[in-house]
Amino acid sequence: MDFPPAGYLPEPARTVFLPTRADRARQYTVKPYDVLITAVGTIGQITIISEECPDNWIPATNMFVVRFRENQRDLGRAYYGLMKSEFGTRVLRELSHGSSIKLISKKAFARVPLPPCTDDFIAYFISLWEQQEDLYTRSQQLLQEALKVYQAVPEVVRKGA
Q1: Which among 36, 41, 40 is positioned nearest to 7, based on CA atoms?
Q2: Coil, helix or strand for 46?
Q3: Are 39 and 95 within 8 A, CB to CB?
């Protein structure tokens, strides 16, 4: 699964229908501001679930779901930023093992010491989140403009004048 390079996960990569045992599957649904981190294969892809996510999204089995009990929005975005930083990248790289398929064990991941989650720490990463979100939004708008460049080709050129 490819996560967006910045910001919230816009939609799942694929849809799977579960005709049986759907009640059991529902206990694994993601919630707004959950942080998803790939832990098998391509290690360290990170995204965050948006507030508007439907109540039926279930992450793949190769992902860790990090959920906060309180202040989910701010702590989720701060944790996302921390794990996208050089610190987080290094931690995930050091935790990964395996010769052909890399993976991170849940036990090792759960033991990672994190910096103290102070108000300044949260504010810093929220500021970075907002900067990144703005830059990513503008880059997507520019990409859309770039894709429209050739739509304005004059009729004369289209007819092969």
Answers
A1: 36
A2: strand
A3: no
> What residues have CB less than 8 Å from 105, skipping those under 6 apart?
95
Q: Find the length of the chain.
A: 161
* Residue 91, C-beta contacts closer than 8 angstroms, at least 6 positions apart: 83, 112
Tell me the per-residue pLDDT of 122-134, one tens digit each, with 9 for 90 and over.
999 999 999 998 9
In whole angstroms, what is the distance from residue 151 CA to residue 45 CA? Answer: 35
For the chain, list the domains and their CATH numbers.
8-149 (3.90.220)
Q: How far apart are the first and last CA of the chain?
A: 46
Nearest to 95 by CA among 113, 116, 77, 117: 113
Is 60 exceeded by the pLDDT of residue 149?
Answer: yes
